[in-house]
Specification:
Blueprint: H1 19-24, H2 29-48, H3 53-60, H4 66-82, H5 103-116, H6 127-130, H7 134-141, H8 147-152, H9 162-171, H10 174-190
Helix pairs in contact: 3-4, 4-5, 4-7
């Protein structure tokens, strides 16, 4: 009958406790080690943050070369965040989510891009989702380097003449022309 009654299961006991030893358990090494790991990761992130070398290279480059430099910068940072080898051939038209980019990585990439370009204001939180491919991201980031161009450059016509388009192609380096051609071929393959 005693076991059948479950309405009062309170028990009282007397225990001899060494309170100094008991409190010593509260200083378990888990939290100390975790705090050290967080500090080490923060220091590593600051050391691994891209230098302003990219910012300087892009600013010093002629406007016609900036899109390719921005694309290279975005690809380099994306490879770091995704944990891929530096020599991995990242397709500029492939969404980064297809390569495993998640929301935390997207925030990390956004922060790396902003710091690497020395931007005064943070980039939008949804940047990588609004501009999912490296090419899209590079195109978005180009706006931060156009302010100085617009002060000097005259307005361009909306549709370039064939002569102007040919002159622009001839002014490109071999590498830039090849990159442009590969991007066009990629878009044709995808039916865009």
């Amino acid at each position: 009958q005693v076991m059948a009654r479950r309405d009062d299961l309170t028990q009282v006991g007397i225990v001899d406790v060494d309170w100094a030893a008991f409190r010593g358990q509260a200083d378990a090494p888990f939290f100390t080690e975790m705090a050290q790991l967080v500090a080490q990761e923060a220091a590593t992130a600051v050391a691994a943050a891209p230098s302003s070398a990219w910012q300087q290279r892009i600013q010093d480059a002629p406007p016609s070369k900036r899109p390719n430099l921005l694309l290279a910068f975005v690809q380099e940072q994306a490879l770091k965040v995704l944990g891929l080898a530096a020599d991995f051939a990242l397709n500029p038209q492939q969404p980064l989510q297809e390569l495993g980019l998640d929301s935390l990585m997207a925030v990390e990439l956004r922060n790396l891009l902003g710091r690497g370009l020395g931007l005064e204001r943070p980039l939008p939180a949804t940047l990588v989702f609004d501009y999912p491919t490296p090419a899209d991201l590079g195109g978005y980031l180009a706006q931060f380097f156009k302010a100085e161009e617009t002060a000097v450059a005259a307005p361009t016509p909306t549709a370039p003449t064939p002569d102007a388009a040919l002159a622009e192609l001839e002014s490109l380096s071999d590498e830039d022309a090849e990159a442009l051609l590969l991007a066009e071929l990629d878009m044709l393959r995808k039916g865009e």
